[in-house]
Amino acid sequence: MEVVALILIAVPPALETWLVSEKPSHFHELFQASQKNGEALATPGSSVDPDTTTGEVTWELLRDSAIAPLWIDARAYDDFAKEHFPGALSLNQKNWQRNLPSVLKKRRPGTWIVIYCGGSACGLSRAIADRLRKEAGLEDVYTFREGWPALRQHVP
Amino acid sequence: MKRISQVLRILLGIVFIIAGVMKISDPWRFHENLANFRILSDPVAQTAAFYIPWLEVVLGIALIARKLYRGALASSGLLLSIFTAVLLSAQLRGLDTSCGCFGSWDISLGFEGLLARNIGLLAVTGFLIRAER
């Protein structure tokens, strides 16, 4: 009976926490909110011209083409936990094995993956991008040129 | 013996409260940790991610206040046993994952560290159960 009572006591606060919790937001909602004149989202590659030599994209390029990528944060997990782009997934060299399944599960066919790290001089995003292309066999994998310092300015 | 039991009881209660509060502060991250164990379906993992932390807080308070004490000890032992079993299961399946029990603090502990911690807490719980008889 005591066990049952304890189990039941925990239910109301758990329910309340769930009701008030902020569900993980998605990037495409941000783009839709910033769409001009209700234009439909462009399909990947239709009007986008990423730097195919370096595999880099910029915010302006993504915004202008209304691309809603799957964002990957390649920084250390502690940095990711402090703040990250809404909806981004953490994937770095340390948690690669653990988090890759989540990335593969979340990515829909045809969706771009855009990886960011600490800044334009940071090589973590390029390393993760290389691994995703070679080990996971993914296409449409790009890095965000300016990194988190530039990207955080666009977080609402 | 009585003083030792008292100290261990309070410490165990504090540990449960801290563990619960850390997960309550970021339940969706705990949900991701649970999903990474690949045992629960997503709806069940979501439910567990929000419910388990509060159960831990309730158990911690019950242990410290010595209310519903025997039930709290039994529930604590059961919860810790389940956590340990899940951790062992993940290790046997070759999954590289942390339990997320203490939020980002868990990242620095490897499998051995997590297992040692859980076994230690189970031992404390066992001691308190025995002392209560």
Question: What would you say about this model in short?
Answer:
The complex is a heterodimer of chains A (156) and B (133). By secondary structure, chain A is an alpha/beta fold.
Secondary-structure blueprint:
The complex is a heterodimer of chains A (156) and B (133).
Chain A: H1 2-9, H2 11-20, H3 27-34, E1 56-57, H4 59-64, E2 70-73, H5 77-82, E3 89-90, H6 96-106, E4 113-116, H7 124-134, E5 141-144, H8 147-151
Parallel strand pairs in A: 1-5, 2-3, 2-4, 4-5
Chain B: H1 2-24, H2 27-36, H3 42-65, H4 69-92, H5 111-132
Structure description:
- The complex is a heterodimer of chains A (156) and B (133).
- A 5-stranded parallel beta sheet of chain A has the order 1-5-4-2-3.
- Chain A is 42% helix and 10% strand.
- Chain A is built from 8 helices and 5 strands; from the N terminus they run αααβαβαβαβαβα.
- Mean pLDDT of chain A is 76; it is low at 25-48.
- The termini of chain A are far apart.
- Chain A has 156 residues and is α/β, with parallel strands linked by helices.
- The longest helix of chain A is centred in the middle third of the chain and has 11 residues, at 96-106.
- Chain B has 133 residues and is mainly alpha-helical.
- Helices cover 77% and strands 0% of the residues of chain B.
- Chain B contains 5 helices and no strands.
- Chain B has helices at 2-24, 27-36, 42-65, 69-92, 111-132.
- In chain B, helix 1 runs antiparallel to helix 3 (42-65), helix 1 crosses helix 5 (111-132) and helix 4 (69-92) packs antiparallel against helix 5.
- The longest helix of chain B is centred in the middle third of the chain and has 24 residues, at 42-65.
- Chain B is globular, with a radius of gyration of 15 Å.
- The model of chain B has no long low-confidence stretch (mean pLDDT 84).
- Chains A and B meet through helix 1, helix 2, helix 5 and helix 6 of A and helix 2, helix 3 and helix 4 of B.
